[in-house]
Specification:
Order of helices and strands: EEHEHEEHEHHEHEEHEEEH
Distance between the termini: 27 Å
Strand order of the largest sheet: 6-4-3-7
Largest sheet: 4 strands, parallel
Radius of gyration: 19 Å
Helix content: 25-40%
């Protein structure tokens, strides 16, 4: 039997058991498409982050057959090997050969490797190009290797372990190495993957919001922070814990241009639960 675990930030893990892998892949494909369609309807855009490897190949081929507005879907990777996109070990190559076919060929792909001669320069380019995913993600597909790694966060890798224990990362991307097959990897950090919140889906980074007082939280858990604001000083402007959300600004104010989007996102999450 095969097991499917669906994780949504702030919600307990749910588990379903399937008689075979085919049924699991079909169910997962339908859930992914359903999630994308919600954001396509509400925001006219959807964002999907995928894992590589051989396990999801059939799943991605299934997804490519669905008839949705793929032209408005952005697709990226949670991690990648630092190799040419044409290399046989490239996750980008696998995604393009499986998912970005047929109807899904209209989707926009945003990779993590652009300059294999200069790792630092490549990280700068990847970070700039991946900004859309930092502003909200419709769905993230994560796998787990036999050694317990997910994305490219590996046991016994110093950079991976640091990302797992850090409550605040300097950048959303980091460089790691796979101990079992030493090779440079680029991966989203644990913090970035866990901070995927649909409360701000469709809201661009550095958007303006209306504040009417100067109070702000000082005693908080870094794990609960959704956003920070800088106005002379940096302070926490929104938090979440399980199914609880709190914002310091006023989303209901007519002076908050994206307030209706936030309230709509909150209502949809309540309905999903």
């Amino acid at each position: 039997m095969d097991t499917l675990g669906i994780f949504k930030p702030g919600i307990s893990l749910s588990k379903r058991i399937f008689l075979n892998k085919d049924k699991l892949e079909q169910e997962l494909a339908e859930q992914i498409i359903s999630t994308l369609e919600v954001d396509l309807k509400e925001h006219n855009a959807a964002k999907l982050l995928l894992s590589g490897g051989s396990t999801p190949i059939k799943l991605y081929a299934l997804l490519s057959q669905y008839d949705i507005n793929w032209a408005q879907v952005s697709i990226g990777l949670v991690d990648e090997r630092f190799v040419s996109p044409n290399d046989s070990h490239s996750n980008e190559r696998m995604i393009k050969n499986t998912l970005l076919q047929g109807k899904a060929s209209k989707a926009k792909f945003i990779g993590l490797v652009y300059d294999t001669d200069n790792l630092a320069a490549n990280l700068d380019i990847a970070l700039a190009n991946n900004k859309p995913f930092l502003e909200g993600i419709s769905c993230v597909i994560l796998g787990m290797g036999s050694d317990g790694h997910t994305a490219s966060l590996f046991p016994n890798d110093e950079a991976s372990l640091q990302s797992l224990v850090e409550k605040k990362s300097a950048q959303p991307l980091l460089v790691t190495n796979a101990p079992s097959a030493p090779q440079i990897r680029i991966s989203y950090t644990k913090e970035q993957l866990l901070k995927t919140s649909k409360l701000f889906q469709g809201i661009k980074n550095n958007s303006d919001f209306y504040f009417t007082h100067s109070y702000f939280l000082k005693n908080y858990s870094e794990d609960n922070i959704l956003s920070k604001t800088n106005y002379d000083i940096e302070f926490v402007s929104s938090i979440s814990h399980k199914n609880i959300y709190g914002v310091q600004f006023h989303p209901e104010s007519i002076m908050t241009e994206d307030g209706k989007k936030i309230l709509g996102n909150f209502i949809r999450q309540v309905k999903e639960k």
